[in-house]
């Protein structure tokens, strides 16, 4: 079937090729971090659009449902702020933590990482591109939930722009965690369980007003990265928000984001070469 | 171009847990030595579980061998597995990383991750999709394609961003003849124009005979033979393969048929025999005349294929094989 005999190939060196000592051939180019990150991001976003829209609806309905349910329990003030902020950030937790953990868990189990691992792409580009895409995918759901919550509880819409910082930073922290769960869990079912647990924690600890929690639970709440996104957002509902605290909370999100994404990148490296 | 020496890999035993039975350790690659030459289509042929995928995953730097060395174009892949991605393109057996992308985006993204800039990546994407006849389905997600179309789309991604070595793990699984032809002519074109080398995994004997320059036959992790397909077939050149298909069951009351039984490989109603030419003539005469003929559904007589070589080399473990 092959019509070209090997001997007449360009630069044919069949015999010479067997000599052990010879110059190593030049390597193909490496994909640079930024362009490959953009390429992964675009691909993941289109994937998410195709396959994850129903799940985004689920996430949004879940948060809206919680808002409606809590309407009877809290009647305004600090508690309402916490509930609205918590439900909005919950959408981020659902997609970035839970779905991303599942995605990486399944990708790893099914050998899908081989595709990336045999391309000269920096591990950080794969992890950050996927994390970024999942985080951006939460934007509409988070916005819808926040606006709905504000209207329902009569909170001001003035500072909703702060979501432009809350979503990416909480998104970074949670998606880093999700990716790390997915890549480190020894089995995909375990990755799914970890993602679900993380999401449940964000739900229980983020949405319920902290004042009513017993001390150990409040400690757990402080350990959860989504809490800081919730706090930052909740603070902006006050008449004159204390921006220093908002910035402080966001800085915690950013810090956790950097660490968890670094861990996820390390986990990817480890998972890619078994 | 690619030299493999003493490559050995054992998957560790897994202890059983509740509901999950224990698995013993498996030596998937056993002291493998190979030399793939530049511009060659080199095949790895073997049945399921022979260790073909395990071997190429070590060659591509995806899996670290226990011992042994892999050198591609002068680079030590065991020590620097990350270099493999800059020398070769790999088409794995799985496509899950691309499943939800459109054919076009899968090809473009892969090109970009292979280091092409946007313009180059799009240009090569269009060229490759066109070459493989995928343009009409370029806008559809891989998940929604048929098995053969999906495989062809994955093959396309392996071609975007030129590499001197293509490592293809069963590239044509599930493809129809048209798609297969597209694959082999794309491979041949690259070989003719750029001297591209191909390391190909297959368990398809016909494919191995028609497209490969040389083939290593793998069995239980070991290379049991390595030669051109014609050279391998010479080892069993003195043999003829006779296949008999019985209507219901073999007429064992015919003494000649009963005598044949111990030399036949039985699979259902089919008996496969490897015989010297004059023996084969005698067998055909027996079964096409007399009492046996009434029980015969079909028979074929063929020169040996690589499958016969494989079975012959596999030897002792199987009953009724040709003794070389
Ligand atoms: N991850 C793994 N852990 C343990 N054992 C494995 C693993 N992967 C493969 N094996 C075992 O190693 C052996 C070789 O498997 P491999 O996948 O290399 O075969 P193959 O020749 O590619 O088969 P196929 O034609 O079915 O693709 C088999 O016995 C298989 O059960
Ligand atoms: Mg295989």
Description:
The complex is a heterodimer of chains A (274) and B (324). By secondary structure, chain A is mostly helical. Chain A is 72% helix and 0% strand. Chain A is elongated. In chain A, 51% of the residues are buried. The N terminus of chain A is likely disordered. Chain B has 324 residues and is of the alpha/beta class. Chain B contains eleven helices and 14 strands. In chain B, the strands form three sheets. In chain B, strands 6-7-8-3-9-10 form a six-stranded mixed β-sheet, with helices on both faces. The longest helix of chain B is centred in the middle third of the chain and has 18 residues. Chain B is globular and about 75 Å long. Chain B starts with a strand and ends in a 10-residue tail after the last helix. The C terminus of chain B is likely disordered. At the A-B interface, α1 and α4 of A face β6, α2 and α5 of B. The site of magnesium ion has 4 residues of chain B, from α1. Adenosine-5'-triphosphate (ATP) binds next to β2 and α1 of chain B. Chain B: It holds the Pfam family ABC_tran. Chain B: It is found in: Cell membrane.
Distance between the termini of chain A: 36 Å
Residues in β-strands, percent of chain B: 25-35%
Structural class of chain B: alpha/beta
How far do the termini of chain B sit from each other?
33 Å
Biggest interface: A-B, 52 and 63 residues
Q: What's the pLDDT, averaged over the residues of chain A?
A: 86
> How helical, in percent, are the residues of chain B?
25-40%
Order of the strands making up the biggest sheet of chain B: 6-7-8-3-9-10
Q: How would you concisely characterize the structure shown here?
A:
Chain A is mainly alpha-helical. Helix content of chain A is 72%, strand content 0%.
Considering the chains and any ligands shown, give keywords for the structure.
heterodimer; A: 274 residues; mainly alpha; disordered N terminus; B: 324 residues; alpha/beta; binds adenosine-5'-triphosphate; binds magnesium ion
